[in-house]
Amino acid sequence: MAQFPASIVLAGAGRMGGAMLEGWLEGGLDPATVQVLEPHPSERLNALAARFGFALNPAPQTLRPPRALVLGVKPQTMAQAAPTLAPLAGPDGFVLSVLAGKTLDNLAAAFPGAGAVVRVMPNLPASIRRGVSVAVADARAGAQARAEASALLEAVGAVEWVDDESLIDAVTAVSGSGPAYVFHLVEAMAEAGVAAGLPRALSERLARQTVIGSGDLLRESPESAAALREAVTSPGGTTFAALQVLMREKDGMPALFAEAIAAAARRSRELSG
Ligand SMILES: NC(=O)C1=CN([C@@H]2O[C@H](COP(=O)(O)OP(=O)(O)OC[C@H]3O[C@@H](n4cnc5c(N)ncnc54)[C@H](O)[C@@H]3O)[C@@H](O)[C@H]2O)C=CC1
Ligand SMILES: O=C(O)[C@@H]1CCC=N1
């Protein structure tokens, strides 16, 4: 595995920043090399700090530009946070941002001292080190910075690099937001089970375990999702009856997903600036 950056400042350790930090520390990052700025530490973050002993909200005068300045704040917070954080972006380091919508140009403008900028879209399964991240770097990022960024992302799951930054809006819509679609699927299946007569608690357990088991099967099977779907679907059987509704051209899942993902990608573009 590639080496972690020699020094890291993580600004914003909420759900995503905190998940990444946990993955780094579990993955062997030396806690002495990371400083965390988080105005509202969660219980989980405080417990992590107590366990690993990294610096949580150190005195501002002790901060120096690190090799990697990792941004985990909300896109809407960036304008307010950037002026305070910008002095931490030095020419020997890179900024790694997970902010939805914020482009390499936006980041370079907000952090003019940075040696390079890497824009990443991770997803929430990073919190159990099963995330998937897509990264794009600006032209100034050399092989070493890319390798160090990869090490940070590999600690929380799979990593893909792209050259075309414009793909990140669709990436955000598919894998960044995607876990929410799956969780909503569980909610919708459970609710439909209740409508079909199941006791609520049983329906919720069945919907949840079905998604868990199907996800595990996807991971372990070499078959495509389409082949696995076909394996469940007996000709003229119950699944076939359901899929005739779900795969309906006009208002089935493909049409709904096309609309939902286009909406998310559009929102990602709007968050730029
Ligand atoms: N939650 C998710 O599934 C994903 C989130 N993201 C991105 O991750 C970023 C963070 O999202 P979440 O973790 O969900 O939000 P969050 O609200 O849990 O975390 C943001 C954190 O930033 C902190 N913060 C606010 N101002 C700050 C400042 N000036 N300095 C340092 N920290 C500050 C807040 O206290 C908060 O804990 C967003 O930009 C989002 O687009 C990307 C992919 C997936
Ligand atoms: O909803 C959002 O804007 C963020 C980015 C991807 C997942 N959560």
Automatic annotation (TrEMBL):
It is found in: Cytoplasm. Its EC number is 1.5.1.2. Pathway: Amino-acid biosynthesis; L-proline biosynthesis; L-proline from L-glutamate 5-semialdehyde: step 1/1. InterPro entries: 6-PGluconate_DH-like_C_sf, NAD(P)-bd_dom_sf, P5C_Rdtase_cat_N, P5CR_dimer, Pyrroline-COOH_reductase. It catalyses: L-proline + NAD(+) = (S)-1-pyrroline-5-carboxylate + NADH + 2 H(+); L-proline + NADP(+) = (S)-1-pyrroline-5-carboxylate + NADPH + 2 H(+). The keyword NAD does not apply. Residues 165-271 form the Pyrroline-5-carboxylate reductase dimerisation domain. Keywords: Amino-acid biosynthesis, Cytoplasm, NADP, Oxidoreductase, Proline biosynthesis. SUPFAM superfamilies: 6-phosphogluconate dehydrogenase C-terminal domain-like, NAD(P)-binding Rossmann-fold domains. Residues 9-101 form the Pyrroline-5-carboxylate reductase catalytic N-terminal domain. GO terms for molecular function: pyrroline-5-carboxylate reductase activity. It is an enzyme of class 1 (oxidoreductase). Catalyzes the reduction of 1-pyrroline-5-carboxylate (PCA) to L-proline. Belongs to the pyrroline-5-carboxylate reductase family. This is Pyrroline-5-carboxylate reductase. It comes from Camelimonas abortus. The gene is proC.
